[in-house]
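[09:14] KT: can someone run the structure on this one? pasting the chain below
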Amino acid sequence: MPRAASKVAVSVIVEHGAWSEAIAEPLPLLRRAAQAAVSEVRRLRRSRATWTPVVAVALMDDRAMRKLNRTYRGKDKPTNVLSFPSGEANEGKRRRLGDVAMALGTVKREAKAQGKSLQDHVAHLMVHAVLHLLGYDHEADPDAEEMEAIERKALAALGIADPYRPDPHADAK
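[09:31] RB: done, structure tokens below
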């Protein structure tokens, strides 16, 4: 009998107070999104792993994200989300996947521009970030297609619409 997948342990540091105003309780949303990503990857890999993935999330403003993006990617502008895989040995019942940073201003602007709710966009970015922590990338087209397919399935499991589907109303605008 297959073992139940262990839950993802997510800790959140709210570095920018406006996050608490934008999303009253971000932890359950981030935890569900991380769990959806891990569950989909385990399903694809036919993994019966029982270890608990651990992820830390820093919710920050664009200014702090700009500093991170400049320091770690050489890009002097804020971005929506960054992932920092732990690179630690994975032994024991808990495995630290790494850290995620998310910038409220950028995320809010993108959600508005894309006609999405802030919660749905944050969930999508968390799924995306966790996939990076699990080793997925989107630099090459085949890798991007694989990663997007996993994102679509994880988000569908959360009841969130396909973020890569073209806007059916785009021609009417």
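[09:33] KT: thanks! The domain at 9-158 is CATH 3.40.390.30 (Collagenase (Catalytic Domain)).
[09:34] RB: yep, looked fine to me
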